[in-house]
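PROTEIN DESIGN WORKSHEET
SECTION A - STRUCTURE
LENGTH: 578
TOKENS:
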């Protein structure tokens, strides 16, 4: 009996040899297919959206900002309703079609319809163009789990003028099949509220236009830069092992940053890269992939979609991505919800700042028009620092007049600031002379140096740039001194600036009233910005107090030297009289 069980359970040597041979043959076939696809890719445009890594600069061209909206003149809305008579690309005679729609450099993905030669979509996509006519290129592919996606058909749709067309069936150019499309376009004025809502806040393209390469010497690219080609300042906040649901469960890794949700998977020679901007996400829901496999569904706004892979269908016209096989679904869900909440809070804050600035510009425009009517025109200067972030640091008196303070500590002939930096072991000191500023009024200059850094995360010395602005009243009784300090080589140094304002007003012949305010201006949102603000503010307060102590000591030393010189003159006169 035991021998019979062993023969049934343990394979024979012939069966083992056949299994190994078949496995080697299958691996060789997949290897040859991968090489042939790579060779064809050099001579033909990529048809597989998962093989194409879309550069970030191309992708963000659809994220329009308020400034870019001044150039946008038309909105083109394409509705892909259905298709019929598609080629059966699978062995069972069906296909898994999805569409890629291009208008200029803007690209959209439709959802994937499984096992259908007559798919129904009912999805709409928005494109922003500067002028008409334009052409819309629509291409339908069959999704393949392992091999290259097959072309099912394509059509070119010209949009000559503003208006709306009905639902029209279009024949494919080279393949059999038809697709039903409806196109509408309308002119968009600069003040149209729809564009403002779609644009939201200033896009990252403007924020990073001057930051093509990292300036920090010890910068190392992360997975977001290596895999997805995102900007160098995007860091991974959370990373989870999971799988994305498509026609097949592709297991990979999810990366969450401040602006994007990314997913990467590699299955044999097929790579899957998904990039979903948080601005396109409408809702994040807990769902189920099966009765025992919890999942997370990412539902996007109408007309929006991610890049890299076709999403799943949804009944209300919105597309969705479903991620499953998490180690801890609830923890991943909370991380996604928190990141989306912070992103929307950042958008609201930037919208308020933008509306406030637009309100100020409107008010200034009214004043200028009123002055032009009267024949006079005032000149307005831009603020040098952000006054809203300043907090009180010093409020007291200083034993000299405003004119003496500027002459001894801030003038071009004064070496006080250089000596202060030398006393703190600063190196590579370079300070320019004061020059008039047409933008801010008064005078400005630049002070660069290297300051020692005691943090274990920083290099021994960090480069610092300090921009200084001063305005002295005509009667030399009031002085405004402002500084903007930027550290370059500290962690998150490019994210913040330290703003400081000194206000001095002469009270008597030997004293002046001094008010000093300090604040940290965050140029970009950061997960530890509260710690950065508190730490940088306290550190700069200590530096301001040290400057004041050295200034008082310098003033006393100069008074003693003047008194000693006066006594010597008196003794010399007395000696001559004797």
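SECTION B - SEQUENCE
RESIDUE ASSIGNMENT:
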């Amino acid at each position: 009996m035991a021998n019979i069980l062993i023969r049934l359970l343990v394979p024979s040597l012939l069966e083992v040899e056949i299994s190994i041979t078949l496995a080697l043959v299958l691996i060789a076939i997949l290897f040859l297919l991968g090489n042939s696809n790579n060779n064809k890719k050099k001579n033909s445009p990529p048809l597989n959206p998962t093989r194409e890594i879309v550069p970030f600069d191309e992708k963000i061209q659809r994220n329009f900002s308020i400034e870019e909206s001044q150039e946008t003149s038309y909105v083109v809305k394409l509705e892909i309703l259905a298709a019929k008579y598609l080629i059966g690309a699978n062995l069972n005679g069906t296909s898994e079609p999805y569409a890629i729609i291009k208008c200029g450099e803007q690209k959209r993905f439709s959802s994937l319809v499984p096992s259908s030669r007559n798919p129904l979509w009912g999805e709409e996509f928005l494109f922003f163009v500067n002028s008409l006519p334009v052409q819309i290129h629509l291409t339908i592919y069959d999704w393949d789990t392992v091999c290259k996606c097959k072309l099912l058909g394509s059509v070119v749709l010209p949009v000559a003028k503003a208006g709306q067309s009905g639902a029209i069936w279009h024949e494919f150019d080279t393949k059999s099949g038809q697709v039903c499309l409806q196109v509408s376009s309308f002119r968009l004025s600069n003040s149209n509220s729809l564009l403002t809502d779609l644009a939201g806040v200033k896009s990252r393209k403007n924020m990073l236009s001057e930051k093509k390469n990292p300036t920090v010497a010890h910068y190392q690219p992360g997975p977001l830069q290596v895999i997805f080609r995102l900007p160098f300042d995007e860091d991974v906040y959370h990373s989870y092992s999971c799988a994305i649901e498509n026609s097949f469960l592709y297991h990979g890794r999810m990366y969450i940053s401040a602006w994007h949700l990314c997913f990467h998977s590699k299955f044999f020679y097929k790579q899957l890269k998904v990039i979903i901007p948080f601005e396109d996400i409408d809702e994040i829901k807990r769902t189920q992939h099966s009765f025992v496999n919890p999942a997370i569904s990412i539902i996007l706004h109408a007309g929006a979609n991610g890049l890299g892979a076709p999403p799943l269908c949804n009944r209300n016209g919105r597309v969705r991505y479903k991620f499953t096989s998490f180690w801890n679904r609830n923890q991943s869900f909370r991380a996604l919800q928190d990141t989306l909440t912070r992103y929307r809070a950042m958008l609201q804050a930037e919208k308020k700042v933008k509306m406030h600035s637009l309100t100020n510009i409107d008010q200034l425009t009214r004043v200028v028009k009123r002055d032009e009517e009267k024949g006079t025109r005032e000149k307005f200067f831009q603020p040098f620092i952000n006054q809203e972030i300043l907090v009180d640091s010093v409020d007291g008196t200083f034993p000299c007049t405003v004119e003496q303070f500027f002459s001894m500590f801030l003038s071009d002939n004064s070496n006080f600031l250089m000596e202060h930096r030398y006393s703190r072991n600063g190196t590579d000191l370079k300070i320019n002379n004061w020059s008039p500023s047409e933008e801010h009024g008064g005078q400005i200059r630049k002070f660069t140096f290297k300051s020692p850094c005691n943090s274990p995360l920083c290099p021994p010395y960090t480069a610092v740039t300090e921009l200084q602005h001063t305005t002295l009243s005509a009667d030399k009784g009031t002085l405004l001194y402002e500084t903007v300090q930027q550290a370059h080589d500290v962690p998150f140094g490019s994210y913040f600036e330290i703003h400081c304002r000194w206000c001095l007003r002469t009270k008597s012949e030997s004293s002046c009233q001094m008010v000093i305010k300090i604040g940290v201006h965050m140029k970009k949102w950061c997960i530890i910005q509260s710690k950065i603000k508190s730490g940088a503010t306290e550190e700069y307060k200590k530096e301001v107090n040290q400057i004041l102590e050295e200034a008082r000591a310098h003033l006393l030393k100069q008074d003693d030297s003047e008194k000693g010189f006066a006594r010597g003159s008196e003794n010399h006169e007395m000696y001559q009289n004797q």
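SECTION C - NOTES
The first helix runs from residue 2 to 9.
Residues 40-71, 191-218 have pLDDT under 50 and may be disordered.
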